[in-house]
Write a structure and sequence with these properties.
Chain A has 190 residues and is an alpha/beta fold. Chain A is 45% helix and 18% strand. The N and C termini of chain A lie close together (10 Å). Among the domains of chain B are: 183 residues, Rossmann fold, CATH 3.40.50; 73 residues, Roll (Structural Genomics Hypothetical 15.5 Kd Protein In mrcA-pckA Intergenic Region, Chain A). Classes of the chains: A alpha/beta (190), B alpha/beta (423).
């Protein structure tokens, strides 16, 4: 289930595992999300850690901005996540709107100074590269926002690692150098 | 007919309130390499209202040279016609770094460094424009509080491929040099500044063309009348090798240079640059350019002296200062009369080499620099109007008159006082 992981040098595998999983509320939650709690258990078994907490980071801000949803529309979708995720085995549910402000230009631009255009191009999925003419600079802002959310979440919720789908591999590899120390576990979702 | 220096100096004090469109545009165009678009500029001026001008700088350097002053002089022309000048201190954008004409990325600045640079910068431009004419803004004022929704709405208007295809970015990427995502966003940030301020006309260097195009696009897509843009040419350096004026090329005249060095710097430019410098630094009108160019062609030395006179007078607001500097220059060079005031006195033993003595004077960075000047036959002994080239081996006791280094530095060797202890 775990395709591969990136371990933090000097990581104490006996300490409490706090693993984050970021999900965008682009549409209603799908059942495939159940694969992540299972993957987290697999990670847990490979350590001598005494406890595991799986924290869902539910982004209810970006999809609302990108898809121009009203607050009510977003609320309706977000509530589905609030119901489903605990049932699937997530221990903590954190909505991004609860811990992020929306005035983040400064922070996003600071991150943008540390990422090159080539690195950004590399992390775009092929499907987006194929339709380059339709892509706008909002894509860049989306990337910066997402990194900024993870940056905040890792510090705020003391996450030791991140669980991610293998299809988001390039995003997590590119953002790793920008974030506080953490481990990454790529889940084979194919 | 009046001399150009007198005629153009008299113009500095003129008020241009209520000036006609053709007359005003005729004063603006000599300073511009490109205008986006001339029709838009004329349309805005013809509206006969107070126009909002924008000029932005990233406070990336503290000391500026006269090349940086050209857009300021253009701004001053608008101020004299009664228009409103928004002067943007890019404290937000400075942290991003303007990618314009860079072959490598810029190091973002700290807030303290920005404040420090700005103080030095404004002190320098204050010589050319009354600072009270400027409405100073820091773009953090409106960029920091922007919400994600507002940012998204603007960035959505610019195509990613368009941003990636900028020629300067392509060259850097081809050379495997990094282009940061922040640099990709730079032009958009400038556009947000213009939208926020409701800018009518923006002023900047021609090297900003790609950023300005993004600015206009963002204004258009935000439902505003797009700004007109006046782009000044990039001033060529004094050495005449075709490179732009730059501290790193050593071909510059610093705004803070002494009047003597400024005058001398202008006198050192090649003749083919006299016309460009006249256009950039004076209020010459388009209809006067033919006569000016004829004058330059007929008497380049006199034209250069008048230009240098004006350069001093523009700064001090007194043509007498320029004329005084001219007189001093002519005395030293044309008539080869050098007074004690022109010289640095050096006290050295007769057996010391001139090279060693000059190096010890502290006026030269290194002995290598001096060796180069000796090699270029630029170190001479001037005695009774005659010049003798000095060799590297020349000693102080061989000097008969005054030592001139390059065009403008003079040294007099004064006998060392004999110490009584040793008698």
């Amino acid at each position: 289930m775990i395709a591969y992981s990136i371990r933090e040098p000097g990581f104490d595998s006996s300490k409490a595992l706090r693993i984050g999983f970021s999900v965008w509320t682009r549409s209603s939650p799908k059942n495939y999300l159940s694969i992540y709690p299972e993957a987290a258990k697999e990670v847990f078994k490979s350590t001598t850690s005494a406890s595991l907490s799986l924290c869902a980071l539910v982004d209810d801000v970006w999809p609302r901005v990108e898809l121009a949803r009203t607050r009510d529309e977003q609320e309706a979708i977000s509530s589905c996540y609030a119901t489903l995720l605990p049932e699937l085995g997530f221990n903590e549910i954190h909505f991004v709107s609860e811990f992020m402000t929306e005035t983040v230009f400064d922070a996003c631009l600071s991150i943008a100074t540390k990422v090159t255009l080539s690195e950004f191009w590399k992390l775009l999925p092929q499907s987006k590269k194929d339709t380059l003419d339709d892509l706008t600079l909002a894509e860049v802002i989306g990337f910066l926002w997402h990194v900024h959310v993870l940056e905040n979440a890792i510090s705020r919720y003391k996450l030791t690692g991140i669980l991610a789908g293998i299809r988001s591999e390039f995003f997590y590899l590119a953002s790793r150098k920008l974030l506080p120390a953490h481990e990454v576990y790529f889940v084979n979702t194919a | 007919m009046k001399r150009f220096d007198q005629q153009l100096f008299a113009r500095i004090a003129e008020s241009w309130n209520g000036i006609g469109v053709d007359e005003f545009v005729g004063f603006l165009t000599p300073k511009c390499q490109e205008i986006l678009t001339i029709e838009k500029l004329r349309q805005k001026i013809a509206e006969q209202r107070t126009l909002k001008l924008k000029f932005g700088i990233d406070p990336t350097a503290s000391e500026i040279h006269i090349g940086h002053v050209v857009p300021i002089l253009l701004l001053r022309q608008f101020a004299r016609a009664g228009h409103h000048i928004d002067f943007i201190i890019g404290d937000f954008t400075a942290r991003v770094g303007d990618p314009t004409a860079r072959d490598t990325g810029r190091v973002p600045l700290s807030p303290d460094k920005i404040v420090q640079n700005m103080e030095t910068y404004t002190a320098q431009i204050g010589k050319y424009i009354a600072l009270q004419m400027l409405h100073v803004h820091h773009n953090t004022q409106w960029l920091n509080p922007m919400t994600l929704q507002e940012i998204f709405a603007i960035f959505q208007q610019i195509n990613l491929s368009e941003a990636m295809q900028r020629e300067d970015f392509r060259v850097r990427m081809r050379n495997e040099q990094a282009v940061s995502l922040a640099e990709v966003c730079y032009g958009v940030l400038m556009g947000i500044d213009s939208v926020h301020l409701g800018t009518d006309i923006e002023i900047g260097g021609i090297d900003q063309l790609l950023n300005f195009q993004q600015c206009r696009k963002i204004m258009r897509q935000s439902g505003m009348d797009e700004e007109a843009i006046l782009m000044t040419s990039i001033l060529e350096g004094t050495s005449g090798d075709g490179r732009k004026m730059s501290k790193s090329y050593g071909n510059y005249i610093a705004v803070n240079a002494t009047p003597e060095n400024k005058f001398g710097g202008i006198m050192s430019i090649p003749d083919r640059l006299i016309g460009q410098y006249f256009r950039c630094f004076t209020d010459v009108h388009e209809r006067e350019l033919t006569k000016l160019d004829e004058f330059i062609a007929q008497n380049p030395l006199e034209a250069k002296k008048q230009l240098a006179t004006l350069m001093i007078a523009i700064e001090t607001k007194d043509i007498a200062d320029g004329l005084c500097e001219r007189e001093s220059f002519e005395r030293r060079f044309s008539q080869k009369k050098i007074t004690n005031d022109d010289c640095v006195n050096l006290h050295e033993d007769g057996s010391t080499t001139v090279l060693e003595a000059l190096f010890k004077s502290g006026h030269f960075k290194s002995k290598s620099e001096l060796r180069r000047l000796f090699g270029q036959q630029a170190v001479r002994d001037i005695h009774q109007g005659e010049e003798a080239i000095l060799s590297l081996e020349a000693t102080v006791d061989q000097i008969r008159g005054i030592v001139r280094v390059g065009k403008r530095r003079f040294f007099r060797f004064v006998a060392k006082e004999v110490s009584h202890d040793r008698v």
